[in-house]
């Protein structure tokens, strides 16, 4: 034991400075650190490993999965066309949805009650009716409005087309999916806008920005942090919702494979083909989302410092505290010695 | 330079400003004191037209706030015109309100580029000079989250100055700061006052008011209870309300 250690044991000194009990001695510098053991983690890993092995075994040995058929169709021409159409529908419908969502969200927050109620009505109607019904409705719009015309409302027409020419299955699909998506997106965007403190808008107005400039330059970029994760969800949801357009006879990924298995009866392998493609696209979208999140996380890095850096910081601080405590301890013990 | 004449403002049925008058000459600093809830922030926000007044008149630089007069008619200003006038008035907030997604330099550049439509490259030099003036040239590329409160507030002052305002409004600029950071912000404000900026400052920093202000206004319950030179108001207040407030603040 160090001399200081002994002095701590002395009755006189410990009365003077009980805090000294916690102070390190010279021995402490060469100690071996033993981390906490996590035996249950090993058990969990073992259980998961067994389950995965069983699943793989079942997938590989079960003839009925017909992996050779899967391989045969994975890159088949109609399947790839289906993939492209699915991507196209997803992208266009999401763009329409996001634009409508932003407009409807801003309208919802408008001080003009007519504007905000109209936005509310839009959200209520399109969230409140089944997407399938909406798609059919758009497709059969031709039956309700035989001609669609451009002109002055209730006045002369400049041009008019037969609704059935304009409303193709593709048109009905993107309009139906996009307008439906807009109603969901508007709630996401509205939550994002409301998450930005009022002071930000005021600061923007105070330097002379218009309301629209403040929204575009200051509020929306910050709202994006809140908007993007649920929008990622929406995009992935949309990817799969596009399969609903089979009801209006549009051929995307799932419809393409169903057309094939309707002919060949290789139902399971073709569904696996579709599922694999959906999984791949979802993975790509998730990676994209990660980068977009990072982009809009600018200025917030301090909150996301890597754990390593933070640990280094904590280590440095606790070292300083320790040194400070030692200095204090020495002062105290020398003070104690005098009395 | 600035004149307010019997300004009134209500929120719902509550009258928050009940006839506030004030005159500030070019180059002068007016300090506004008063208990919380007395309407100081509301008054500053009215000057900047962030709130619309319900009665009275205000002029900044000879232009009536919020209205344009032609003959015997007062026309309410359109948003564009309101924004143009706001651009000529700097405002510094208690909570800094820097744009967190932009660096210090980008915060300063934002106004000139977006509002005045000037070239980014041309403004950057001026912005760096302003950051240097508030002692933060070496922090130009830091995000607000990487700056201390005092540094953020100094960037906020630089951001306001970048619009070359003729009047600066400060709403308790040091109230959200740790005590050891108050001094650096007050120093910047003192320099600004010494350089001839016209300022209206809401503050509880009595030392600043005594040293820098040309006039002190004590507000309570939406009216100016007492006003005069710092010496008169702070050292020998005539009104009981002023005395009891100062006793509390200086205690
Ligand atoms: N937007 C608002 N809506 C309703 N009441 C408000 C609003 N802003 C301020 N007030 C009220 O006005 C009064 C004065 O507030 P304020 O001007 O912030 O006082 P001070 O800055 O002197 O503390 C307070 O009672 C406050 O609650
Ligand atoms: Mg206030």
List keywords for this structure.
heterodimer, A: 339 residues, mainly alpha, MetI-like fold, two-stranded antiparallel ribbon, flat, disordered N terminus, disordered C terminus, B: 251 residues, alpha/beta, six-stranded mixed beta sheet, four-stranded antiparallel beta sheet, globular, binds adenosine-5'-diphosphate, binds magnesium ion
How would you summarize this macromolecular structure in one to three sentences?
The complex is a heterodimer of chains A (339) and B (251). Chain A is mainly alpha-helical.
Molecular structure report:
- The complex is a heterodimer of chains A (339) and B (251).
- By secondary structure, chain A is mainly alpha-helical.
- Chain A has a domain at 70-147 and 160-296: MetI-like (MetI-like fold).
- In chain A, 74% of the residues lie in helices and 3% in strands.
- Chain A contains 15 helices and two strands.
- Chain A has a two-stranded antiparallel sheet.
- In chain A, α5 packs antiparallel against α13 (253-264) and α12 runs antiparallel to α14 (267-296).
- Chain B is α/β, with parallel strands linked by helices and 251 residues long.
- Chain B contains nine helices and twelve strands.
- Chain B has helices at residues 40-47, 79-87, 104-115, 120-133, 149-161, 179-194, 206-212, 230-235, 240-250; strands at residues 2-11, 14-24, 29-33, 55-60, 63-64, 67-70, 73-76, 89-92, 167-171, 198-202, 215-220, 223-228.
- Chain B has a six-stranded mixed sheet, with helices on both faces. In chain B, strands 2-1-4-5 form a four-stranded antiparallel sheet, with helices on one face.
- In chain B, β11 and β12 form a beta hairpin.
- In chain B, α5 (149-161) packs parallel to α6.
- The longest helix of chain B is centred in the last third of the chain and has 16 residues, at 179-194.
- Chain A binds chain B through residues 197, 199-200, 202-211, 213, 217-218, 221-222, 296, 298-303, and chain B through 48, 50, 79-80, 83-84, 86-91, 93, 95, 97-103, 110-111, 114-116, 143-146, 156, 159-160, 162-163.
- Magnesium ion is lined by residues 40-41, 171-172 of chain B.
